[in-house]
Specification:
The protein has 248 residues and is α+β, with helices and mostly antiparallel strands. The chain is 20% helix and 20% strand. The strands form three sheets. Strands 5, 6, 7, 8, 9, 10 and 11 form a seven-stranded mixed sheet that branches.
């Protein structure tokens, strides 16, 4: 019989375990290379390609079609060249030491105030609608719990009243407040600025923002389109307040 003649002296259990180990080794290789589509190739402190890229090769480019007719994105994209002019200088010839800002770190977007070059388009929900919008433009939303900060004065790090809360910007699918819109007092600037809700502290009588000195509010990056904040706007706004904790 064919089956008896072949499998009589063949260890099927050994074949199964070896096939499993080979599959497991391939899976590790596949997952590691797919994980290298962002953040690679590795760089040194000067922005040059690092000599040691690790034991795994860089994966071939893969193009993804984005939903809602937003084009395509290819990764690894090597987007490192989008910001080659960073105002930073070495503090030591040895690698691993911190870099020193050479200009105004708040304006240059380095250190704690650094930001990534995200796409200058608003984030969309699963239905292709803009996720974040002012509450004034969404009549179906209201404050159902906690204090409504609209109309409250805004205090800066140096206890100056820099403006008042004009509106709240909400993440519609998540039903959460993402930003407070601050109408500035003429003494500290013109127009309004957004502050991430995580950088604000709402009390009974006012809203405290301990990340910025009063003189820095006028420099908060403003969205390019009224009533809309893009991914790049969000990155720069959050970076300004993050940098202000150290530099303001």
């Amino acid at each position: 019989m064919v089956g008896v003649n072949f499998f009589g002296n063949f260890d099927l259990a050994s074949l199964s375990i070896w096939l499993f180990w080979l599959f497991f080794a391939w899976l590790i290789y596949y997952l590691q290379t797919e994980n290298m589509r962002e953040g690679y190739p590795l760089e040194d402190e000067d922005g040059n390609l690092a000599a040691n890229q690790g034991p795994f090769p860089l994966p071939a480019d893969k193009t993804f079609i984005l939903p809602h007719d937003r084009g395509e994105v290819t990764v690894p994209s090597c987007a490192r060249h989008c910001r080659d002019d960073l105002a930073l200088a070495r503090t030591s010839t040895t690698g691993g030491y911190p870099l020193m800002p050479t200009g105004d770190p708040m304006v240059d977007g380095v250190g704690p105030g650094s930001w990534a070059p995200r796409r200058d388009i608003p984030e969309l929900d699963g239905h292709g609608q803009v996720k974040i919008a002012p509450m004034a433009s969404v009549p179906d939303f209201k404050v159902s719990f906690g204090r409504d900060p609209r109309g409250m004065p805004v205090l800066s790090k140096d206890d100056q009243v820099v403006g008042h809360v004009a509106d709240m910007w909400i993440d519609k699918p998540e039903a959460q407040v993402r930003y407070l819109e601050i109408a500035l007092e003429p003494e500290w600037g013109t127009g309004s600025r957004l502050v991430p809700i995580a950088f604000s502290r709402i009390s009974r009588k006012w809203v405290e923002i301990n990340a910025l000195h009063s003189s820095y509010f006028d420099g908060v990056p403003q969205p390019g389109t009224a009533g809309q904040v893009t991914l790049l706007d969000e990155e720069k706004i959050s970076a300004w307040y993050g940098g202000g904790i150290l530099y303001s």
